[in-house]
Inverse folding.
């Protein structure tokens, strides 16, 4: 009798986990489909880096304009332009322009052009908590890297339940560093 109860509990737990994973992926797919339907997007955001073990807390603002794979990103005094094949990094302070392929230095980085598709490969998904933030219901989806050698422990993607737009992205590293990107304004077309 105890064995039947144990097996039933295991099946129930696995079913709930698969359900949460499927719901998480469905929500991410819905957001991605909606955002890809726009001709272009302009986002102003706040970027926060916290590493308590190193006593670091850095906050800054930035903005990005995206059209398909192309983007113009301004953050930390640097402008990054991606034309679909080449990435131009412009640093006025250093009076320097660097030209490279987008993926040369950032295999694991979530760039603007990957923002809506990075989750499709290499992660498991699970619905996480729903929070009420400034009168908005934000549903979090937790993404966990499949690769055990990843420097990331997890990513929490906050999605506005009403608009189906990304509210924030919280990246948690295995070293304890936490990077948060919070959308201040989201304009389309």
């Amino acid at each position: 009798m105890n064995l039947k109860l144990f097996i039933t509990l295991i099946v129930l737990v696995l079913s709930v986990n698969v359900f949460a994973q499927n719901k998480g992926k469905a929500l991410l797919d819905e957001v991605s489909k909606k955002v890809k339907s726009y001709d272009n997007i302009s986002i102003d955001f706040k970027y926060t880096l916290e590493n308590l073990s190193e006593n670091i807390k850095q906050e800054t603002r930035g903005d990005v304009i995206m059209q398909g794979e192309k983007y113009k990103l301004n953050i930390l005094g640097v402008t990054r332009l991606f034309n679909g094949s080449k990435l131009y990094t412009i640093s006025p302070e250093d009076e320097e322009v660097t030209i490279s392929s987008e993926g040369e230095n950032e295999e694991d980085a979530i760039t603007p052009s990957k923002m809506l598709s990075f989750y499709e490969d290499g992660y498991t998904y699970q619905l996480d908590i729903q929070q009420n933030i400034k009168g908005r219901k934000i549903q979090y989806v937790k993404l966990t890297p499949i690769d055990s050698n990843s420097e990331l422990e997890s990513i929490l993607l906050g999605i506005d339940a009403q608009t189906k737009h990304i509210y924030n992205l919280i990246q948690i590293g295995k070293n304890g560093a936490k990077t948060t990107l919070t959308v201040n304004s989201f304009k389309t077309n």
